[in-house]
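@channel sequence for tomorrow's demo:
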Amino acid sequence: MGIVVQKFGGTSVATADLIRRAAGRAVRAKEAGNHVVVVVSAQGKTTDELIALAHEISERPDPRELDQLVSTGEQISIALTAMAIHAAGHGAISFTAGQVGLITDSVHTKARIQGVDAQRIHDEFAKGNIVIVAGFQGVDAQQNVTTLGRGGSDTTAVALAAVLRADVCEIYTDVDGVFTADPRIVPAARKMDEIACDEMLELASLGAGVMHSRAVEFGKKYDIPIHVRSSLTDAPGTMILEEVTRMEAITVRGAALTKDLAKVTIRSVPDQPGVAARIFHQIAAAGVAVDDIIQNVSREGTTDVSFTVAADDLPALVETAEGLAKKLGAQDVVTDDGVSKVSVVGVGMRTHTGVAEKMFKALADAGVNIQMISTSEIKISCIIDRASAEKALRVVHEAFDLGSEASA
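structure tokens (generated this afternoon):
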């Protein structure tokens, strides 16, 4: 028998009718001759509501207790999904991630998966059961509940698909697949039939919310085909594959917007070997992930170091950055919590020139000022003012004609 892993996001299990619809998909996959694992998120806005409640109680909730709280949303979803499958006349059993041996590190709210013991799932397959697993969560070596970060249910699903050697991992969501840009911001955005893992990984890390970036990493590492599709229709969605047709022919595959960023600048840092290492060691120790980094040209023995972080991480970072500035003898720390990042991605950039020039011209013509620039082999990103973010995404999407079938 084949193995199919299906993941349903919060909007796909938000009501009793939607849960029954999700259960029906799992049953159909079972009746087609497959073993089936269903990974579910918390219903609707449950996680947001729980986080808001935590912040009503405490300005800075303890991360361990926050994980303990927000993980409860998925427990509701798994039990209801199992009940729906029972009502349809099929065997099913629900598990928390800890109950199926999904072990993470101990970094609360941003944990990373270290291993999965799939034996319990195989035991349930042998009994003919559909297995429902709570997404987004795990346990560490001390049995503390952890969570994988927003969108982490995708990562749960692909990790389970990898350890089970599943034939496919289906990611059901409220959109039809992966688009050339966020269709809520860019009405001309077009659904792609397929996309390369490397491109999807960049888009996911740059704000394309349809997939969690670590889920794409798992898919690439373990060669798991991922099918992103709508939970509301039976139409095919977007396949995320190691390689796709016309891979190098298309220069830019998609555009993405990372909206809620903050820029931090430590001014007049001593321009000496090892200083940058000290700065980013301390920031990493504070549990803050840094995005783009720019160090200005040295002047009079000092330099400015600028970097971006998620806007939510700024309050936790300020104290660390100010402490570093004092220890290093830097002038001060300047922050801006109103920046965003617009990016274009495409494997074809490896063999085509002129992409940067076209992007910069499109932004200039629209009156969008570029504050920072970062590049990789298949990506160009620009830090801009958040007030211009959505306009920037639209003009860049148009500049590369991404809404045209010719870019398919």
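heads up for whoever presents: The first helix runs from residue 16 to 31.
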